[in-house]
Amino acid sequence: MHIENLRIFCDLVDSQSFSRAAEKNYISQSAVSQQVAQMEFEFSNKLLDRSTRPFRLTRYGKTFYEAAKQIVEIYDTAVSEIKAAESDPPVLLGTIYSIGIHSVSGFIQKFMKRHPDMKIKIEYLEAKSIYEMISSDMLDIGLVAVPEAGKNYQVYPFISERMVFVCSPSNPLAREKSINVNSIAQQDFIAFEKDVPTRRLIDNIMSNYGVTLEIKHEFTNVEMLKRSIEIDAGVSILPEITVDKEVHTGTLKAIPINSDAFLRPSGIVVKRGKKLSKSAAAFLQLLINQNKQ
């Protein structure tokens, strides 16, 4: 007996009609009757009482129907889950450049090892675009610095990055073991543009110290800031992780700042109430668990 035989019997009982069961399963009415007869032959018992109109289930028919219904439902659920796993879309991840390049690669590698059949599509975007694309369902997950609350999206804490004073090795301050805030204020400063959250964070910290920076250049991208600092066009304050490579190769100097205030928080952004795909939900959980370790 095949799963389709069970399905036809269930459709027959549910519709109380041989013709409707036949139509639903694209077979003839006589084929439905023949299948029922074959089942009754196999069980050596009547499943239907045809002496009444509409027909009624016999005691054996009720037992068989209940079991067949469960089997069909379990089978259909399994098929749906398998198809969903096969067609699960890639995780649509949007991240600001500095977090995407320097902080997320390890998480992506761990995710791919755990879920080799799942995929991630990553886009490097400005924070403003990430919030907009999360709200409009163009992204599943966003990673931003200095996250902001919003009614359309939910924010989970991610990682906090220590920020350091960054200068060229030829800058006189490059020999210092640590830097105070007032010393930074005396330098030509290369900053993020004003609408970048990290810029606003640094401005607020400096304002709390009563210090105003001498802004010489402004950029959106951390890589442009680093290239300008390398030619000694000015100094900056950047997340330490973003300059590890340049410090190692000797093209930049990173010096601790004498303040505990210079920490850049980051956050995971998802649309409030959105049902994520299996892949996106798994990657989100991996990111959230970072703070539990």
From TrEMBL:
Q: Where is the HTH lysR-type domain?
A: 1-58
The entry sums up its family as follows: Belongs to the LysR transcriptional regulatory family.
Q: Which domain of life is it from?
A: Bacteria
Q: Provide the alphabetized UniProt keywords.
A: DNA-binding, Transcription, Transcription regulation
Q: What is this protein called?
A: HTH-type transcriptional activator CmpR
**Any one GO cellular component localisation term in the record:** cytosol
Asked whether the UniProt record includes Translocase among its keywords, one would answer no
Q: Where does the signal peptide begin and end?
A: none
Q: Which InterPro entries match?
A: HTH-type_LysR_regulators (IPR050950), LysR_HTH_N (IPR000847), LysR_subst-bd (IPR005119), WH-like_DNA-bd_sf (IPR036388), WH_DNA-bd_sf (IPR036390)
GO MF annotation list: DNA binding; DNA-binding transcription factor activity
**Keyword Heme listed:** no
